Amino acid sequence: MTHVIFVLLLGAMANGPATQDKAKKAQPRLTAVDVKSEAQLYRKTPQGDLSMQLYYPPDWKAADRRPVIVFFFGGGWKNGTHTQFMPQAQYFALRGLVCACADYRIESKHKTTPDACVEDAKAAVRWLRANASRLGIDPDQLIASGGSAGGHLAAATALCEGFDAKDDDNIKVSCKPNALVLFNPALNMTLSKRTVVNSAGTDITKEFSPTLFLKKGAPPTIIFFGTADALIAHGDEFLKKTTALGNRCELVTAADMPHGFFNRSPWCEVTARKADEFLVSLGYLKGTPTLKLPAGAPSLEMRK
Fold it and tell me: Which of 31, 92, 206, 264 has the lowest CB atom count within 10 Å?
């Protein structure tokens, strides 16, 4: 099936030989200490229960109204684990955010198609908002983030129509985040000239493409891409279209870097610090980022 070709292509870009060699090394640490963390169930599906790992600031209490960020892992809607964004979640928890790393259904584990991933991502955002009062979060300061396919899911919660779970108890709660932090996301499947189909075998390529649903009032967005990533065309198109509509968007690039570059040091640190600065500019964080960059760390460039 042609959707498998596209999924395998994106998965190969995220998990190719060079990236796999890097993955054998220890995951970068952005903090010197661990933070309080717990898993909470957010959805039951026929293929299994879905949880998200929550990370709390040291002085967190349930009565707080803190901004919250939810991370979605990458892996071509086929593979991956919620631990991918643990370094960023721990760092931003120490900076004052409640952070969540959400699990969702994937083909390799749950035998599902990509539409299920979007359904779960929307359910995750709704669950966070519905439980804001006990999680100590502000439902009006919710940031969605993710890498590759996970970046697509974050964007899809904000922009794509449909993909709503019929059994979601929180279906009347908005799934649209207030800001987006995207790491080399897939944003327009039609650019890749591959077909995405749902569980019924129906072509959902256009419905699955966040860029095609852009309109005025879209959330402020920062996007990270390596200039050697074939998907950067998705970022360029998104930037052009959303800014033409009057929306805020920053596309920042890493020279000559491939897909998934943000997963390893020093780019993990560099992109996290830039994301911090972006969230400060929105008022979700305060002060100067506390993350120290490695000596000689490279710079990101702003794409026009």
Answer: 206
